[in-house]
Amino acid sequence: MTVDTVGRFERALEGLEVGLERVTAADASERIGTIAAEPAIGVPLPFDGVTLPASVTTDPTAAELTAARTGITPVGFAIAEYGTVAVESTADGAEPISLYPERHVAVVAESDIVPDLSAGFDRLADGFDAGRDSVVFATGRSATADMGDLVHGVHGPGDVHVIVLEDR
Questions:
Q1: Per CATH, is 5-165 categorized as 3.40.50.720?
Q2: Distances from the Cα of 130 to the Cα of 31, 94, 126, 127, 133, angstroms
Q3: Using DSSP, how many helices (H) and how many strands (E) does the chain show?
Q4: Are strands 84-88 and 77-79 parallel, antiparallel or unpaired?
């Protein structure tokens, strides 16, 4: 991963109208809290020194999932070329947290941003070898033009923010 890779990721997200913030691990928890609209649900974050705000529910019921305005998830890796984040599926089914709420906050380590699709497939292969067999790829806000004009947020988040951790 190079600085150019992160810059490329940032430019791709800009084109997708996705917010991106680069923060240190020490500042990440506060920034996540600022971006999250309540009620919020989330997946515990696997990054040292980064926690979810106390108001975020981490084991939501179906009703809490439906009512949530923000879903916060860690991202296994991101693909700079397309502005894509890879939300790894989990045994407890945490990936809906990135799909149901109107806002998704994806948290990724800078070192987990790969330059292109080929490198993304390499990361997938590594994950599959380690027993992870399902990933949700998200590129920008959900959108559809099935019924005419382009509409965002019909079948997923209409608002997406990515937090890039500058250090782990």
A1: no
A2: 32, 18, 6, 5, 9
A3: 5, 11
A4: antiparallel
Q: Are 137 and 82 in contact, with CB atoms under 8 Å apart?
A: no
Q: For the segment 4-59, what is each residue's pLDDT rounded down to a tens digit?
A: 999 999 999 999 999 999 999 999 999 999 999 999 999 999 999 999 999 999 99
In this structure, what DSSP letter does residue 36 have? P
Task: Give, as one character, the DSSP assignment of residue 111.
Answer: G
Q: What is the pLDDT of residues 97-144, one digit of tens each?
A: 999 999 999 999 999 999 999 999 999 998 888 888 789 899 888 777
Residue 107 to residues 75, 145, 150, Cα–Cα distance (Å)? 6, 28, 27
